[in-house]
Amino acid sequence: MKTRNSALCALGLAAAITLGGAVTAAAQDTTRARSQTRIPVRKDQPVQAPPRVDTVTVTRTDTVVRTRTDTVTVTRVDTVTRIEELPLQPLGTFQFGVGVGAALPTGDWRNVVKDGYDIHAHLGWFPGANVFGLRLDGDYVSMGGRETDCSACPGAKAFQLGLDAVLRFPLDRKSPVNPQIYFLGGGGLTWFQDFTPYKTTEIPPTIVTAGDNTFIVTQNTNIGGAVRVTTAQLSDDSSQQWHWDVGAGIQLGKFFIESKYVAINTENKSSAYVPVRIGYNF
């Protein structure tokens, strides 16, 4: 062991001596050639770095999806309103009509006669299809006697002829029925076939007669509560009486409905009745 360690120490010492000698020789060699070229050194200029080469790999994938859906819905509704003026319905220049209805006695006359009937005809003229015109009326009126007062009495029957002025007002001339209302009034003559006399309820009461057409009660006639008159009591022997009337009506197309108040100038007091009739104009 001692021999091995001595050898190692000797080798280490020899190496150290050799290295020290080499360093000393190099420091003492002054004859070694030196370079005469100066290398400029500037402190404010940075040392340029060597060029850098970068390799850039760019991978680009463009995906374009273009979807276009054009939906065009065109809805067009054209509403055309056409307004047409309806022609005006004519009013007419001439008029001929017939009708039938009820005859309703009024006042004290109703005490001896009852409701009857009226048969009517007329002829009208409206110059230039005007709203104003004239109408010639003809009527046959029959009203029976009341059985409770005079079972044998004939009541009243009469023919009438009259002339009325008519004023008509169209309500809608564009309508197919051409509705009109009208007013009329005038006068005329009445011829009685039979007329049952009656007594008024006034104080003092009076006896109403109709000339030579007044019903004369014979001795054997049962008249109940009716008035008995004789020929000597008739102060008027005329066969006709005059009358006046006023009324109104409505016309729908060719049909009409009208009513009037008719007052007959009977002896001592007027006898009145109201006809209500429906008819047709040709």
What's the SSE blueprint?
Blueprint: H1 2-27, E1 94-105, E2 116-125, E3 132-143, E4 156-170, E5 180-195, E6 198-199, E7 207-208, E8 241-252, E9 255-264, E10 271-281
Antiparallel strand pairs: 1-2, 1-10, 2-3, 3-4, 4-5, 5-8, 6-7, 8-9, 9-10
Question: How would you characterize this protein structure?
Answer:
The chain is mainly beta. It has a domain at 95-281: Porin (Beta Barrel), CATH 2.40.160. The chain contains 1 helix and 10 strands, in the order αββββββββββ. The chain has an 8-stranded antiparallel β-barrel with strand order 1-2-3-4-5-8-9-10. Strands 6-7 form a two-stranded antiparallel sheet. The chain is rod-shaped. Residues 29-33 have low confidence and may be disordered.
Key traits:
single chain, mainly beta, Porin, 8-stranded antiparallel barrel, two-stranded antiparallel sheet, 10 strands
- Please give the largest β-sheet: 8 strands, antiparallel, barrel
Strand content: 35-45%
The helix-strand sequence is HEEEEEEEEEE
Give the strand line-up of the largest sheet: 1-2-3-4-5-8-9-10
Distance between the termini: 173 Å
Provide the CATH topology of the domain at 95-281.
Porin
Structural class: mainly beta
**Helical stretch tally:** 1
